[in-house]
Design brief:
By secondary structure, the protein is α/β, with parallel strands linked by helices. The protein is globular, with a radius of gyration of 19 Å. A six-stranded parallel beta sheet has the order 3-2-1-4-5-7, sandwiched between helices. Strands 6-8-12 form a three-stranded parallel beta sheet. Helix 1 (14-25) packs across helix 8. The protein is built from twelve helices and 14 strands.
Length: 325
């Protein structure tokens, strides 16, 4: 049985990943690592052990590795794209200095490591349609620079020291559980909240801007499936393109309007978010992931929209009912 540490377990993806891992491996086998001031609460706190783990403090990681006999690390600590651009020094400290700490400890204690990359690792010179697995990566944001460095450093530790490093390039992730927190693709979450609340949505991304997206259940399954994959099949490791759907703001708006015809959207483009979005792929070719570890998404835009609207209605209306009581 695996003993797993999730670093950044209270973050946007980490919180849901921790719960999914506990569902699959048992609560006692998955430690939720968090930084002071961001302690787990609710089900995340009650369903398994937790510990303070600051990715920039190697000693805090090592203590948990030894105490819990950890053999697998999901390193989810990072700043999101827009936040990273406003705090580049901190983005590097968490994303790269922190990764160095994780990899050194993994080398010493023979741990496998998952550290996600992103579509942000590509840049303006990258082919934008069906972006190949292996292609030019010259991002112009600090977020993207840290992601490319993540891929290279993880590969280095695999080839140099034999550390079992694996990674996927996440597209934009859409969740009905965790609220958005400073990502370029956050509009694709915010739009569903606005629709369910009966509000007009103000879109910060211009019409016609295609970006790869994925529903959170598929993102979680991809992360875990890759770590469970037969290593002898993996020609690539850091990092696999994974894809599920590609759409522009007007496409997701139309999808929602099929179920909520009165919903309205207007545009007020955010120059920073738009510039980042323009540098990212319109769609990614995930053939290698499909061939090397049988990756397949379960959701498309229509099925995701149906599920998002249903889950958010239950979440927002039930919460409002509880408050009124």
């Amino acid at each position: 049985m695996k003993n797993i540490l999730v670093i950044g377990a209270t973050g946007q993806i980490g919180s849901e990943l921790t719960m999914e891992l506990r569902k699959r491996y048992g609560g006692d086998h998955v430690v939720a690592g968090y930084i002071p001031g961001a302690a787990p609460c609710g089900k995340l706190k009650e369903s398994g052990p937790s510990a303070i783990v600051d990715v920039t403090d190697a000693a805090s990681i090592e203590v948990v590795i030894k105490e819990h006999g950890i053999d697998t690390i999901y390193n989810m600590a990072a700043l999101l794209s827009v936040v990273a651009e406003s705090k580049p020094v901190l983005a590097w400290k968490i994303g790269i200095d922190g990764l160095w700490n994780v990899l050194e400890i993994a080398r010493a204690y023979h741990c496998s490591v998952f550290t996600p990359s992103s579509i942000g690792s590509f840049g303006p010179e990258t082919p934008h349609m069906m972006t190949p697995q292996d292609t030019i990566q010259r991002p112009r944001t600090m977020y993207g620079v840290t992601k490319v460095t993540t891929e290279l450093l993880s590969d280095y530790y695999y080839h140099k020291y034999g550390v079992d490093t694996r990674s996927v390039r996440f597209p934009g992730i859409i969740s009905n559980v965790t609220p958005p927190g400073g990502g370029t693709t956050d509009y694709a979450v915010d739009i569903y909240y606005a629709a369910v609340r009966g509000e007009k949505f103000v879109c910060p991304i211009k019409e016609g801007t295609l970006m790869d997206m994925m529903y959170m259940p598929d993102a979680l399954n991809a992360s875990i499936s890759l770590m469970e994959a037969d290593p002898t099949r993996l020609m690539h490791r850091n990092s696999f393109n994974i894809a599920a759907m590609s759409f522009a703001p007007e496409t997701i708006y139309t999808s929602i309007c099929k179920q909520m015809p009165q919903f309205k959207m207007v545009y007020d483009v955010d120059p920073l978010k738009q510039s980042i979005a323009d540098s990212w792929p319109d769609s990614m070719d995930d053939t290698c992931a499909r061939q090397e570890w049988d990756w397949r998404p379960s959701y498309n835009l229509e099925s995701m929209t149906t599920d998002m609207l249903e889950k958010l209605r239950n979440k927002l209306f039930n919460k409002a009912a509880l408050v009124s009581e």
